[in-house]
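Record Cell division protein ZapA, 97 aa.
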Amino acid sequence: MEKPTVAVDILGKSFNINCPKGHEAELKEAAEYLNSQMRELRASGKAVGLEKIAIITALNITHDLLSSRSYARSNEQQLRELTSQLDSALGQQSKAG
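=>
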């Protein structure tokens, strides 16, 4: 099965990337996000050189991803605890009623 090639632009350079069929729009969206983050970092003057900009941007995006996963797990645990408390309260109410 042949994968389609999608042209993306990152900091003014064009790259042809293979991706699974049906995921072309997602790849383009990811490339646009990466490009905007890299442009923002470059404009800040905090990093010089394409390689350093790419690595710092990748680390920033990875940090954001891992932080959001941790936040989601924390919320999931809180939801379980609340559900358990509600179940317990409802069980006590039905016994009293």
